[in-house]
User: Fold this.
Amino acid sequence: MERTLVIIKPGALQRGLAGEVISRFEKKGLKMVACKMYRMTKEKCAEHYAHLLQRPFYPWLERAMMAAPVILTCWEGKDAVEVVRAMTGATNGRKAVPGTIRGDYSMSGQENIIHTSDSLENAAIELKRFFNEEDYFPYDTPLVDFLYAPDEKE
Ligand code: UDP
Ligand code: MG
Assistant:
């Protein structure tokens, strides 16, 4: 099973959407295996958004990511990276398709509710960036047979 990172951004926390976001992934059938509140630092933000450091809007993005705590979550499931990314929607909330999280809750290219890993490789790097081994709480899910066919449980 794959693991992917979802960061519930400060804007979502302020707007009372953290539960809604978590609920959507839960209802989909993904399994939350790590969750912690965290205050973003300048250093971690620069590392996480290294591909955007030179963009003129980076100072605004940094401010937005540090404006309130974030909630770091790790979700596990078959093809979890792709599934979560599809549920996230396009970066700009105004362009994101309705039914996606950004499509339903965001009007902005910056204030877009969540961060989600965009590849399996980046998911591994990002999870290491924010979680230690002891942050994970693996557990059995008795409903697994009702979520997956026998050949989908790997
Ligand atoms: N962002 C922004 N303006 C832009 C592009 C991105 O403020 O023109 C912010 C936005 O919050 C986005 C984050 O930078 O979620 C990371 O950008 P990326 O291109 O990696 O988009 P994502 O992977 O989050 O869809
Ligand atoms: Mg990205």
